[in-house]
Amino acid sequence: MTVYDIIDSKKKSHTLSEEEICYFVRAVADKSASDAQIAAFCMATLLNGMTDEECFALTKAMAASGEKTPRPAFSGLCADKHSTGGVSDSTTLILVPVLCALGVRCAKYSGRGLGHTGGTLDKLQSIPGLRVDLTAEEFERQVQDVGGAIAGQTDRTVPADKRMYAVRDVTATVDSIPLIASSVMSKKLASFADVILLDVKTGDGAFMREPERAEELARLMVRIGKAAGRRVCAAVTDMSAPLGDSIGCNAEVREAIGVLRGDVRNALAELSLFHARKILRLVRGISEPEAARETEQAIESGAALKKLEEIVAAQGGDIRALYDETLLPLAEVCTPVRAHADGVLRISALALGKACVELGGGRKRAEDAIDHTVGFRLKKRAGERVRAGETLAEMYSRGEAPPEAVRLAASAFSVEESYRVPPLIYRWIGEEEI
Q1: Which of 65, 88, 90, 183 is catalytic?
Q2: pLDDT (tens digit, 9 = 90+) per residue, 230-268?
Q3: 316-329 pLDDT, tens per residue?
Q4: Domain that holds residue 201
Q5: How many domains does the chain have?
Q6: Is 161 a catalytic residue?
Q7: I need a labelling partner for 274 at 20 to 30 A (CA). Which of 10, 24, 29, 179 fits?
């Protein structure tokens, strides 16, 4: 058996054995497979697909290619949530403290932003002093002692996936559903969460533009999780417009804190609490009305905000930032974006996400630094009726905004005679449907 033979077999649409897949993944991890060979394998997979059995074998092999996070010595179930990425999606900053306040431990490994999508780790690091580079032992201990942790996985976790993704990113093979599913789920299986909720985005600002493809991906990941003995559910949710009313690291952290205070009620709050209810039901086996009461009470009582404070403190962050917005400053130049006509507002998440990148609030390359202070605050939401000249959003920049950011911001807002806002949740895929 050689790497060449495995690529040739997949090129010819043959089904690979678990032994062949494990051999290939080991070659990726120990670097005996070249980048060119990885690219060829990924393209063959993109064009010819994989069976569920192949996907599960690939997921298991990638999860086993590095170190796994040890499970803390506690009884009961531990939860995790994964989003495929979007604009103004700060659900993790809300979901984790709500669940932890209700006694559900959360082991949340998150990522950084790339392209037009924001990253949870970047947002967390808006809080002065906060660390996201926890060792596996620190992560385990914090979940045990505090009830939850939000951090980045170490370089020793799923190294085969890291190498494969780097090649996929430059060879137009990122959008292969089997490779996406295996990449996401390998990282989940390398951790110890028993209950996993997958938020698969669709629409203008998502990687999966069509709801049908998003649902196909969601169902495949749920099947992989079930085969691995985890309790997995998924929601296909809308990302045609920004989820919240703020875009940019500091602005989004401010908004998430506002949700936890009970001051902000919007689609971001609605989806965060929807996810919290679903996870709570899976962990506790309670009814939907009971889950709704408990999640609302966690916010109304201040318990969820207090739990975020504990998580921030445990990771070295300055908890004053949760109560003093001057510690989460916005850039000094505020430019209004105005409506050009009367009508119903439509907002492009993709254009606003790209505009934020042009301001310096996102990355074009993985090594780019992020300016946490720049971004947008929406004054109107998609589907609302607006008048010509009315302020739709405020753009925050350091000095004069770059022309491309101004152009993208203007293009993000269109005023139409009529516009029907897509549903926030297209599809719920629970255990009972698999």
Answers
A1: 183
A2: 999 999 999 999 999 999 999 999 999 999 999 999 999
A3: 999 999 999 999 99
A4: 78-322+425-433
A5: 3
A6: yes
A7: 179
